[in-house]
Every structure is written in C-alpha cells, then in structure tokens.
Write a structure and sequence with these properties.
By secondary structure, the chain is of the alpha/beta class. The protein has 2 domains: about 170 residues, Rossmann fold, CATH 3.40.50; about 60 residues, no CATH class. It has 7 helices and 9 strands; from the N terminus they run E-E-E-H-E-E-H-H-H-E-H-E-H-E-E-H. Strands 5-6-7-3-8-9 form a 6-stranded mixed β-sheet, sandwiched between helices. Strands 2-1-4 form a 3-stranded antiparallel β-sheet, covered by helices on one side. Strand 6, helix 5 and strand 7 form a beta-alpha-beta unit. Helix 6 crosses helix 7. It is globular, with a radius of gyration of 19 Å. The model has no long low-confidence stretch (mean pLDDT about 90). The chain binds adenosine-5'-diphosphate (ADP) and magnesium ion (MG).
Length: about 260
Amino acid sequence: MTLTRPPRLGALVGPVKIDDVSKTYGDGRSAIIALDHLSLEIADREFVCLLGASGCGKSTLLNLLAGIYRIDHGAVDTGGRRIGMVFQEPALFPWLTVGDNIDLAMRLRGVPSRVRPSEVAELLRLVHLEGFGQRRPHELSGGMQQRAALARALAQHADLLLMDEPFGALDAMTRDRLHDELERIWLGSDLTIVFVTHNVREAVRLGDRVVLLSSRPGRVVAEFSADIARPRRIDSEPVARLAAEITDRLREEVRRHGR
Ligand code: ADP
Ligand code: MG
C-alpha cells in the first residue's frame, strides 16, 4: 500500500526561501565562514533533509531560518509560517509533567484554558504517549522524550518544523519507530519539514529531497530527489540504492577537500 498525502487543509502558502545567505562567526583571522552564499527553496509541505558532515553549517542554517541568529548577508523568507523546533536534546522543562510541557506551549500561544486539556490529550495520542501526560520527562525513555518534544513543537501550531538531528542520540530501533511516526504525522498535516542529519540512510528514509551541504564554507553541493513510495522502510532496496549513490557523492566531496 502506498500512502498519498491528502490535499492541503489550510490556505496556500508560498515556498520557504533561503536566498544567498552567508554567515560568519567571529572576525579577523579567527573568523569562521559557516555559510557561504547558500540558496535553497523549499516547497510548501515539502519534507527536505539537509545532509552534511559535522561542522558544515546545518545547525547555523536552521537557526537562521528560525530567526534566532542574525544573517550577515542575504535573506530568508519563511512565508509567515509558525516555526517549531526539535533538537537532539529534547529540551523539555524537567520540573513540569509531559502534559504541562505541551500545555505551556499552547498557553504561550494564547489558547484558552477550557480547550487546552483536550488538545493536550489529542497531541499525546498523536505521538503515541497517551497515559504518560502526568509523568515527568526523566521518567521517560529517550525516544519517548523526543515524542514529547515533537508534541510540544506541534502544540505551537507550527507549520514549519525545523528538526536538528532529533533522533541522533537514539538507538536504531527507537529511531526506526520515530521515523514511521514522523512520516505519518507529516502525511496527515500541512507541515513543511526541514530535517537536519548526518545519517545518509535516515535522510533518504524521510525526505522528498536530500540536500547535500559541503563543509567550510557551507554550500549546497548536490541535491537528490527521493522519489520512493511511502511509507518507506530504512532497509528497503530503493532507500539503500539512493543512500549508496549519495554516500559515493559524499566520499567524492571529502576527497576533494583532502580529508
Ligand atoms: P553543523 O550543525 O553542521 O555541525 P554548525 O552550524 O553547528 O554545523 O557550525 C558550522 C561552523 O560554525 C563550525 O565550524 C562551527 O565550529 C562554527 N560555529 C557554530 N556556532 C558557532 C558560534 N556560536 N561561534 C563560533 N563558531 C561557531
Ligand atoms: Mg549541528
């Protein structure tokens, strides 16, 4: 069975545009050019994976998109989307229950208290954490904490989800399950997702498109369209084939830079 995504639920929004963006940390001889005239357009509702070695500027790019860092040159346009972020560390408030972590995100968005409990329950159900709302984060496994972090990002009514190696610290089996769930949630929503990873298979498992970034300075060196039916499996033949092709390209890139 191939899953197809239903048509857009809400009003049409333009693409996410990253236009000729540069970012340098520090100045003088110690300056590090993290991104160098990088341009990228992400279609509405697209699932894009940014792939590249450690230090190539992936997190910098996400932070620029989120408006957390100032851009030195160029511009980003997120089309007025509401942004949700998920990091490698779940970053939940440890003194709040899982339910209250999600509730807080809605409270900050001004959602009235009478509808919040049912929305919290709905989000817990969506990420398969029903029954865990009263637990504190430390009582949950790493995978469950990441589900809670995802629910909290969704509670902000995010329509652009920026994910920075969110499953990097999880074991392979837990990661597999979260891939399945993220794909399911994305298919049933209007979400546009930018997912950062250094794992080639993960990028192909998830993305409509895999964008390969080079290091020092960060640029787009290649793009691969992952035209593979969903739901996907990380160990399926088409995923393995495209991952091998991308790995070859990645090796070439590493050789070119002499390391
Ligand atoms: P990635 O997420 O791909 O590993 P980053 O965006 O974190 O890469 O970093 C890109 C480059 O910028 C790296 O060389 C890193 O050391 C440098 N860098 C990142 N953040 C800072 C900072 N706050 N100050 C100085 N250098 C930084
Ligand atoms: Mg990073």
